[in-house]
Amino acid sequence: MMRLAGFSIAILLCFVAAGPALGQVVVDIEFDNNKAKYLSGYSFGGYGPSDGSDAVSLDADLSNEVADAASEGRPATSADTNGDKESSQSDNGQSKKKDNACAKVMFDTSSVELPSDATFDYIGVGLGITFDLADTKLPSLKAADYEVSFDAKVSGTESLNQSKLVINFVTADGDDEDDFDDVVVQLARGQDDGTNAFTINSQYQTFTFSLDSLDERKGKMADLADAKLTGVTFNVQAQGNVSDFGIDKDNFLYVDNVRLIKK
Q1: How confident is the model at residue 85 (pLDDT cuts 50, 70, 90)?
Q2: Number of domains composing the chain
Q3: Does the residue 8 lie in any domain?
Q4: What is the pTM of this model?
Q5: Angle (CA) 231 236 238, round 5°
């Protein structure tokens, strides 16, 4: 009996040490074996004139260029989820595989002319990462059942504390005026006034959010029940002030290990 009890305790300890199992992986983009369907970049900016009139756009003075980065990613083993919070994991000397890929976008601000008397300014660059969901049935239609995670960092700047995440579940382009996929559900982390924004800095961090912590900008997850999904796009947006980026061409946003997991 004593040996049986000891054996039972050993089994129990073994299960405890193993920890919780990873949930069902719906999306896993680590850019080496699992690549995105396509990548897109966008840039934006504006400032407030001293006369108090409407904000002036800086979009025409900004440009971006998207590329696969063959050796600048973060090992997928670093991208452990940490609940509904942003993780401050850094590289801490972890060795990287030479072929560890990621996505990156270059942000060119060299043509920006910001008036010295501007009352406010904002500027940013985004990286859209689309995963193919054609013929895929989501295992649940409840936002609380999912969490999204990704690794991100910037270079050319130290810290961008107005960063945001926008997730679009899309269907094929319908009868409208554009040639883009139609957004059925849009979820966002981070509002224009800075509420729920997060900080991307110059070292890789893993960001993990439960989908029910994101704002519903369009539709609800239940709307996907009858939708013929073609994909989901994760838009990671690094945003700050003009002074955060500087007036130059050496600004980059890197994103790796994008996952959508049913808990």
Answers
A1: very low
A2: 1
A3: no
A4: 0.83
A5: 160
DSSP-derived 3-state class of residue 256: strand
Count of Cβ atoms closer than 10 Å to residue 142 Cβ: 13
Length of the chain as a residue count:
263
Which DSSP state fits 224?
A: G
Q: What is the pLDDT of residue 23?
A: 84
Angstrom distance (rounded) from CA 213 to CA 77: 25
Distances (CA, A) of 152 to 116, 196, 198, 253: 32, 17, 11, 7
CA 18 to chain centre: 29
Task: Please name the residues in contact with 180: beta carbons below 8 A apart, sequence gap of 6 or more.
Answer: 173
Confidence (pLDDT) at 18: 47
Q: Does 225 have pLDDT greater than 60?
A: yes
Can you tell me the mean pLDDT for 96-118? 88
Give the Cα separation of 76 and 165 in Å (integer): 20
Is residue 7, in this structure, part of any structural domain at all? Answer: no
Q: What is the pLDDT of residue 98?
A: 53
Boundaries of domain holding 236? 22-262
- Residue 4 DSSP symbol: H
